[in-house]
Amino acid sequence: MTVRRGRNFLQTPGPTNIPDRILNAMHQPAWEYSGPDFAALARECLTDIRPIFKTDGKVFIYGSNGHGAWEAALSNILSPGDKVLVPETGLFSFAWSAMAKDLGVTIETIPSDWRHAIDANQVEEYLRADTKGEYRAVLMVHTETATGITSDIPSVRKAMDAAGHDALLVTDVIASLACTDFRMDEWGVDVAIGGSQKGLMCPIGLGFNATNDKARAVAKAGGSPRAYWDWEARSTARPEVYRWFAGTAPEHMIFGLREALDMLAEEGLEATFARHRRLGDATRAAVSAWSTAGAMELNALVPGQRAESITTIRMGKDYDGKAFQGLLRENFNVAVGGGLGQLEGKAFRIGHMGDVNEPMILGTLASIEAAFQILGTPYGEGALPAAIASLAKAHGT
Ligand SMILES: *Cc1c(COP(=O)(O)O)cnc(C)c1O
Q: What would the 3-class secondary structure string for the chain be?
C-alpha cells in the first residue's frame, strides 16, 4: 500500500471530515446509561438540535445512518397501500422512493432530467389532479447529493397550499442541514430527515426525524407496524433515557453531537451557511474555468439551483472515473465522490460540506487540476486564480 503522509483530504459529500474536537469529545469511557449525567446530556442534545432545524417541534434521534432515518419517517406516517408524490431529483430521491415501495407504499414520481431543481408548478399540477386526495405525503430531497442541486422548499409548500392539498411535506435535509439555510417551521415542513455525517461533522451513526404536531398526529393514528422507529414510544414513556433511544443510547455519538452543536453555536449558523456559500462559489468558479475546454461542465444548469455543499461535475465521453479518483487518492491523498446512478462513470463530485475551509478547497482544486494534467484531460486555464479571486472577493469589504 502507498504510504500517504499529511492530512487526508476527504472531500466527499459524506462522510465528511470529522474535526479533532469531535473525535476528542468521543474519546472517553462509557457513562452509566441510566444515570442522571447522561440523561441531562441527552435531554440537552434533543433540545439543542432544534435550532439546527429551525423548529420548535420534536426531534427524534436514532442510532442509524440516513437510510434508517428515512425508514423511521416513512414507517411512522405511511401505511402499506398509501400513495405518495415524489418529485424526482436524482439518485437519493430514487433510492428513498424505492424504500417506500419496499414498505408497500405506492409511488407517483414526477420525472426530472437530474439537471434542474424541483418545479413547484408541476408539483401543484399533480396535486390538483389528485381530486380524491390520495397522496398522503410529498417526499422531497432538499439538496440532492447526486446532482449538486438544491430545490426550493417554500415554493413546494406554496404549491401544496395553492392546490389545497392536505399531504404531509416530508423533506430529506441530510445534505443541507447545517450547510444551507433550512427553516422547518417557517417553511411549513412537517417532517425533516437528517444524518450526523454531513454538515453535522460527526461520524456516521445518528439519524434524525424532526416532526411537527401534524406529523405526529398522523403517526399516532396510523402508519406501518413499527417498533424501534416509533415516535410515540420514544415520547410517551416516562422521561427515561432508555425509551428516548429505544434501548441503550449511542452514547459516544451523543458525545460527538454535543461537541458539534457547540461548534455550530460558536460559529453561528448564518456564518456556517456563508462559509459554505463562499467555498461553493470558489469551487464553481474553478469548474467554470476548466469547462471552457469543452471536456466537462457543471451538472446543475441553473446558477441559482447549485448546491452550497456539493458540486457535481459532468465529464465528457473520454473520462475514466476510476483512473481519476484512483490517481487523486494515491498521489494526492484526496478523496472526491464518483458519479451516482445515471451519472455513474460520467461525473465526479466535490463535497464542500461540514468542517471545511479555504485552503482545503484550494488544495483540492489544485490537486484535481494536477490529475487532469497527468491524465491528459483537457481543461481551461485560470481555474485556481478564479477560485482565489472568488474567495478574496468574499472576504473583502
Ligand atoms: C447521504 C445522503 C443520504 C443517505 O445517508 P446514509 O447515511 O448513507 O444512509 C440520503 N439523502 C441524502 C440527500 C444524502 O446526502
A: CCCCCCCCEEECCCCCCCCHHHHHHHCCCCCCCCCHHHHHHHHHHHHHCHHHHCCCCEEEEECCCHHHHHHHHHHHHCCCCCEEEEECCCHHHHHHHHHHHHCCCEEEEECCCCCCCCCHHHHHHHHHHCCCCCEEEEEEECEECCCCEECCHHHHHHHHHHCCCCCEEEEECCCCCCCCCCCCCCCCCCEEEEECCCCCCCCCCCEEEEECHHHHHHHHHCCCCCCCCCHHHHHHCCCCHHHHCCCCCCHHHHHHHHHHHHHHHHHCHHHHHHHHHHHHHHHHHHHHHHHCCCCEEECCCCHHHECCCEEEEEECCCCCHHHHHHHHHHHHCEEEEECCHHHCCCEEEEECCCCCCHHHHHHHHHHHHHHHHHHCCCCCCCHHHHHHHHHHHHHCC
